[in-house]
Amino acid sequence: MIDFGLVDEAVDETTHVVSLRGEIDALTAPKLGSRLFGLADEGKRGVVVDLSEVTFMDSTGLRVLIVAGTLCEEKGHELRIIPGEDIQRVLEVTGLDRVLPFTSR
Fold it and tell me: What is the per-residue DSSP string for the chain?
């Protein structure tokens, strides 16, 4: 059984929070990508991705975050990350902490 959960909520008309739980890998990253890319298309100018309950993320999950961040930037929108301790370390080691801005909830 795959341990993965995705819950999202609108904060207001332009801001959205996507909260994730479990593992983000080649099987689950497409679900995350679909939601994040959809939010950019819906005109959400601020998207927060809460990774505080993510226990594992592989390169496919990192790629989804990079592509979503790029799409948001191209549209003049902002994507921010709430990292959990383990994921923050992955983002720091890969240098993505300098590309994907962190925030707190």
Answer: ---EEEEEEESSSSEEEEEEEEEESTTTHHHHHHHHHHHHHTT-SEEEEEEEEEEEE-HHHHHHHHHHHHHHHHTT-EEEEEE-HHHHHHHHHHTGGGTS-B---
Is there a contact between 19 and 7 (Cβ–Cβ < 8 Å)? yes
Quick check: pTM over 0.90? yes
Q: Is the pLDDT of residue 39 over 80?
A: yes
The token duo for 93 is: 């080691």
From CA 15, how far away is CA 27, in angstroms rounded? 27
